Amino acid sequence: MTALEQARLDVEEALRRYWECVKAEEEEYAEDYERVTFMEYEAPAPDPCAEAFSRLVAAVRAYEKASGRRDDLDLGALRNQVYEALDRG
After folding, report:
1. Contact 7, 66 (CB under 8 A)
2. Which residue from 18, 43, 65, 76 could staple onto 52, CB 3.0 to 4.6 Å apart?
């Protein structure tokens, strides 16, 4: 397996883990999900899904470093958020 193929698998795994985190939070907080995620965004407490998102961004960055093009990745609804995070550095 090439470094690029491994990097792509790492992106897919990070994306899967991010969506698993979001789903778990939605199930845990049910109808309060929007309010809780807003509070997490406003508060300095650690947010496991934010950490999962950071790992996804790092995986995409590693994919690019392995000569991959971010446009070749299927990031779905997270595409713009990931691109913005990558462009911020």
Report:
1. yes
2. 18
Give whole-number Cα distances, 1 to 13, 18, 31, 50, 55, in Å: 16, 24, 44, 30, 22
Q: Which helix (H) or strand (E) holds 82?
A: helix 79-88
Nearest Cα to 35, choosing from 20, 24, 25, 45?
25
Query: Where are the chain's structural domains?
Result: 1-25+46-86
CA distance 31 to 26: 8
Q: Quick count: other Cβ atoms within 10 Å of Cβ 40? A: 16
The model carries a pTM of: 0.81
Q: What is the pLDDT of residues 12-56, one digit of tens each?
A: 999 999 999 989 887 877 776 677 666 666 666 567 888 999 999
